[in-house]
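Q: Convert this sequence to C-alpha cells.
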Amino acid sequence: MRIILRLSALLAFFALAPAFAQGTPGQREACEADANRVCEAYIPDAVAIERCLRANAGSISTACKAELGLASAGGKKRKH
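A:
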C-alpha cells in the first residue's frame, strides 16, 4: 500500500512540477518516461496514471513494473 501511495505522489509531482519532481532518482527513472509515453492523456491525474500504467503493463519498462509491484517473481514461463 505504501508503494502505491508513494508512486501516486511521485507521479503527481511529475505532472505538476516536472523541474521539481520529488522522489528518489531511481523512482523517477523507473516510471517517468513510461508515464509520459504511455499515459500522457492522464497527466496530471496521478491515480489515472497509475491505473493506465497497470493496464498497459506489457508496454512499460521492467523497472516501472517493479515499482508498481507487477514484476514477475518467477521470470519466464517454462514449457512442459
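The two ends are 35 Å apart (CA to CA).
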